[in-house]
Sequence to fold (449 residues):
Amino acid sequence: MRRRRGSRPSRTTGAFLSALALGAVALAGALLAPLHSCSAVQPPSTAPPRWSGAGPGDIRIRLAHNVREASIEPLPRVRLFPAGSESPPLTLDKPFRLVRTTKRSIAARSEDHRELARFSASVPLVVEAVDPSGRLRFGQRVAQRLVVRSSRRDDAGLDIVEIAPFERYLAQVLTAELYPDWEPAAYEAQAIAARSYALHERWRRRRLGDPFDVEADTRDQAYALTARPRAIEAVAATRGKALLYDGAVLRAYYASACGGRPASAADTWPTGPGFAFNLAPPLQARPRSSFCQASPRFRWSVVRDRDSLTQRLRAWGAARGAALRSLTSLKAIQTQDRNAAGRPSRYRVIDASGAWWPISAESLRLALNYTGADAPPLSQQDRVHSSDMEIAIDGDVVRINGRGFGHGVGLCQFGAQALAKQGKTAEEILQFFYPGAVVATIEPSTTLQ
Fold:
């Protein structure tokens, strides 16, 4: 599962406060261990994370995956060295590239292609600013510290991971996720939800031994290049606050707009061993009032060609080894099951031959938007924006009428803004979207067992 938080259409960024205090919260064992396709990872065997008294420290954000090289600009100087090495680091003050030259080696090269150094590809490389106020640039992103390592799935690629202060990361998440003029209470509710999700995913990744904690996009949380003042203020105002359920960190999913009918985590993502957190009651759908009518995707409509849609669904099935790869000619897509809020949770895809296949609502959304072999990229206006939809086929024309934007689990961002405009506090907003969860301020001396 990759959560599609699909927030606002624009991403306005602002200046970032250079000194932002870290919140005094953490997951037990998170700093001792080294969210994301849940179907592509081995689940941890331990229970959900519970709080210890340590601070949240840093978070590892994967900025790029399986690239052949990384261009880095020192601002003004950086150190380059293999992790754990006692040898003197290489100090650089001019732009350079790290290039995967062979399966076993990574070369540092100058802009004029001179080789500056060669390193073993089996050991991660650390690139960090020499001075406390220094920075480095990778693409458009400015950071203080990067780790460059071999990609696990390709012995010719590199993964680029930023090591960032946890709370600074949160402020940049809020900047990417919300409109700049939204209410402070909406920002604060989002800060608490985003902190909870990031802490949970960091714990999950480290229990698995993964070399990063979160992706830098909506597979986990959108991550802006900088942070605007309102986001910084919301993170500071909620310092130390997170959502808990039964004393454990809640994996606080959120999406742009639920369209009036929320989805359940248990219907959307795995719930087997290692994924019991998706069964938490605050993450399950229930009937509730709708407050996201201001979303431009509160209601939407998409028209597709039946033959091309058949081909796309078949390609998705083939790529995943799913039974849908046997689809020959799409006859209908019907709702099979609905959740407690009335939102479809499962559909059936019916072939012209009479054969049919059940598919979860979220999987259908992904299949309808699939890009790959025999499935060319879709324009934004042709994409399916949520899993809550009705599909009508008339001859060769397929009309898809839908509600909302994103997976629909947990907090609805447009709904949070509407409630904030009504005068609701951040905690009241969170109680509405995560019933049964509590907002807790964790002090360094506190442990919840």
User: Anything to note?
Assistant: The chain is about 20% helix and 30% strand. The helical segments are 166-177, 184-208, 229-237, 265-268, 306-320, 361-368, 413-421, 426-433.
